[in-house]
Amino acid sequence: MGNNEVMNNNEVFAQLNNRVYEIQISRGDKMNALTDAMYGSLVEQLKYAENNNDVRVVFLRSDNKHFSAGNDLADFLETEFNPESNVVQFLLTLARFTKPIVCAVGGAAVGIGTTMLLHCDLVYAAENSKFSVPFIKLGLTPEGGSSVLLGKQCGVAKANDWLFTGRTFLAQEALDSGLVNNVFPDIEATWEEARNIAESLAKCSSSVLNETKALLKPDQDETVKTILKEAKIFAQCLKSEEAQAAFNAFLKR
């Protein structure tokens, strides 16, 4: 591919420069809410990066002020949910990924927009970032391994707080809790700093980078099992009257 841009659809695209594979989510008119097609594209891009020896680091971000408003609920309800669904495959691909992932976040980071961060290695946020994992408000259970990973990374008390209340929390709380590594004044500065860090990492030996990640994340197999267990329970909850009512109320707003 060299340094040429690759586009799977007009809402996700990627570019390789200086051994950094930059993946951008680009659906600004919908606050980067993710569709089934977008998840499929993200899986394809991550697998390409995993198997390309020219890629040493992945840099994941949006191309506008919001990171992701989570699932596009209308699209989500039209797509069958099971372990083979693109959304589950996206989370599994992240969990199994062997190369470092640097992520930059700004604006809304809702649901999977927050839980996917648990699979990234370095996360940087703009001051205007707003995080939430509001599954319980939609009659759903946690996903993405968050039922285990959030407690490990941020502490059980904080995980219980966020997952049971579904409340919104801001960048400083995310930093204090260990969800993100640093906070910058605005999204442009966040992108610049995160890209600089990714490019600096990409100058290191690929084997050293990968081995370091493997040492820092020795429980990837257990994470995969957790994601699949959560997906099974999540699928059951999707069929409940509570979840259907919550979705309908949200879509009518």
Describe this structure in words.
- The protein has helices spanning 36-51, 73-77, 86-96, 112-115, 146-154, 156-165, 171-177, 187-201, 206-216, 220-238, 241-251; strands at residues 6-9, 12-17, 20-25, 57-62, 101-105, 108-110, 122-126, 130-132, 169-170, 182-184.
- The chain is α/β, with parallel strands linked by helices and 253 residues long.
- The protein has one domain (6-184, 217-251): 2-enoyl-CoA Hydratase, Chain A, domain 1 (Alpha-Beta Complex).
- The strands form two sheets. The chain has a seven-stranded mixed β-sheet with strand order 1-2-3-4-5-7-10, with helices on both faces. A three-stranded mixed β-sheet has the order 6-8-9.
- Strand 1 and strand 2 form a beta hairpin.
- Helix 3 packs antiparallel against helix 10 and helix 5 packs across helix 10 (220-238).
- The longest helix is centred in the last third of the chain and has 19 residues, at 220-238.
- The chain starts with 5 loop residues before the first strand and ends with a helix.
